[in-house]
Structure formats: C-alpha cells, structure tokens
Specification:
This protein is mainly alpha-helical. 72% of the residues lie in helices and 0% in strands. It has nine helices and no strands. Helix 7 crosses helix 8. The longest helix has 27 residues. It is elongated.
C-alpha cells in the first residue's frame, strides 16, 4: 500500500510541477512518468487519462490552498488585516516558488484557465467552482469589514470580492510575465481604494 501511494504521489507532484512550468497541452503521459520515475503502466493504474490527472492535481492544490485561505481569512485579526495577510502570503508563495523553480510560476488555476477554458469543459467548470469559492471566502471578510464601518457603505460586497480575486490573478500573471513577485505588492493599497476604506478605519501604518 505504501509503495502504491508513493507512486501516485510522485505522479501528482511531477504533473503539478510540469503543468506549472510548461502548461497542460504540451505534456504527454510518458513525460510525466519519466519525471516521476515510475513506469508508464503505473499511470493508468491510478488515472484513467491525462485529464483525470489534471483534475486531481487541481483538487489537491485547492485543498491545500483552501486550508491556508481559511486559516488566514478566519483568524481573530481585524477583517482588513486578514485581507492584507492573504495578499502577503500570496506574494510570499510566489517568492518561494521562484526560489525553488528559478522563475515565477504563477497561479496553477489561472494558468490552466487561460490555457484550457475553451478546450476542456470539465477543467473549466472545476476552475469556475474554485474561483467562486475564493470569492465566497473573501466576501465574508468584506461583509465583516462593512458591518464594522471599515469599508464604505456603498460597497457591493460580492462585486468587490470578485474584483479582488480578479486583481490577485492579474497581479500574479504580471509577476509571472515579469518574473517579479514584487508585482503583488500593490494588492493591499488597491484593495483599500476598492473597498472605499475611510482613512480612520485603516490599520496602523497605512
């Protein structure tokens, strides 16, 4: 059982790395297995197709990211501070990825959405579900901020949450293009404006 699980994990890790670095369409099963150091027959023992593998990679990546987002956005800190924590963690993730891979790899979800949204409906639909879940999580924090008078009374919480998710994805894409994680440094200030945060409600140092 241990060896079987180990082989599956190797395939998933190799696939995630290759998808981040090269995209999905150009990859073949043989290349993934070579990178994972497992025989090709092992692939079809665990996954019915390359698409099934990609969906599993997406789900496992989201499980880890969702846990991190839940911890950051569900902490006892003030709502605006939780948002800033999320932005800082996102930038740090890209910095760590650059140190490990030698370049900014961007967002797995954003990369796949740009590459496959018009090609693979099953992957597109799963990514839509994930982005909606992200919007839900951020909207809850914005609602808290608005109720506490830390966001403008006219702010549409759903639209603002959607704009923040879009801003995160856009900034990560720019960071990838320029190979510069510092491109994410504007997320905080931009969001303060988007949420119409009164000067008196801004955290210290802002």
């Amino acid at each position: 059982m241990g060896r079987t699980s180990d082989a599956r994990n190797k395939i998933l890790e190799a696939a995630r790395t290759l998808i981040e670095q090269r995209g999905y369409s150009a990859l073949g099963v043989a290349e993934i297995c070579t990178a994972a150091g497992v025989p090709k027959g092992s692939f079809y023992h665990f996954f019915a197709s390359k698409q099934a593998l990609a969906l599993t990679v997406i789900d496992e990546h989201w499980t880890a990211q969702q846990q991190q987002w839940s911890e950051l956005l569900g902490s006892a800190r003030a709502p605006l501070e939780r948002l800033r924590d999320l932005f800082e963690a996102t930038e740090e993730f890209q910095r760590a990825g650059r140190q490990e891979a030698g370049l900014v790899v961007g967002c797995l979800f954003g990369n796949l959405a740009a590459e496959l949204s018009n090609q693979v409906p099953e992957i597109r639909d799963r990514l839509q579900e994930i982005f909606e879940a992200q919007i839900d999580m951020i909207e809850k924090v914005i609602v808290e901020a608005k109720d506490a008078g830390q966001a403008g009374p006219a702010v549409d919480t759903r639209d603002a949450a959607r704009s923040i998710v879009a801003q995160i994805e856009g900034r990560v894409l720019l960071a990838k293009l320029l190979d510069d994680p510092a491109q994410l440094g504007t997320l905080w200030q931009n969001s303060l404006g988007l949420l119409q945060v009164p000067a008196a409600a801004r955290p210290a140092g802002v």
